[in-house]
Amino acid sequence: MRTILVASSKGGCGKTTLASNLAAFYATAGKTTALIDCDRQGSSLHWAEKRAGLKDPVLGLSGKLGGKLKAKVPANCKRLIVDTPAGIRAAEVAEWLAEADALVIPVLPSMIDLEATETFLQELQALPALRRGKFPVAIVANRLKPWTQATAAALEQMRTWAYPVVAELRDAQGYVLLAGLGRSIFDYHSEQVRAHQDDWTPLLKWLKKIA
Fold first, then answer.
1. Structure-model confidence comparison of residues 72 and 170, the more confident one
2. Which residues contact 55 (CB under 8 A, 6 or more apart)?
3. Which conformational region is residue 30 in: left (phi greater than 0), alpha (psi within -120 to 50 degrees), or beta?
4. Domain residues of the chain, as ranges?
5. What pTM, to 2 d.p., does this model score?
6. Does CATH number 3.40.50.300 belong to domain 2-210?
7. Per-residue model confidence as pLDDT tens digits over 7-36
């Protein structure tokens, strides 16, 4: 079973959207997938419950810091996505690194988010498991407005960080609407949706190599 942590020290960065859409992608690809929700709001868990009746369900599980990630996951599960608590610190991430195969960090293109993430990344780099540079960590630039100078400047800053920016996801209201239905952009195949699916391709290829 491959395990992917989705984490950020900054709330409101789209962490749950990233985790749920990743889980849906693997489910629609025919892989038995579980999504552990460690956030007190339980948004990922609610999403999985709404999805339960669909053709490609995702098993939603409740988790918490300090708990074993895989304790409640069925043995036939092929992919495990972990929606970590909002505002998590690097020391808390360290508790799960031994059970995980990759860490994905969503970042919004705002100065507040950039500054908060830079501090978080510095803390991560100090962890023994990451200091060796062998554990896969990726940045996902989220809710981008590519036509704005703010997005261009934010991306330029992100690309100076120690970890690679592997995907650039454009802002779209569809993510919010689909989340309320327990669905994802990978459940649809219209031309407009496929354009947003293409934004995910670099991340999915990166994960395929290591997870």
1. 170
2. none
3. left
4. 2-210
5. 0.94
6. yes
7. 999 888 999 999 999 999 999 999 999 999
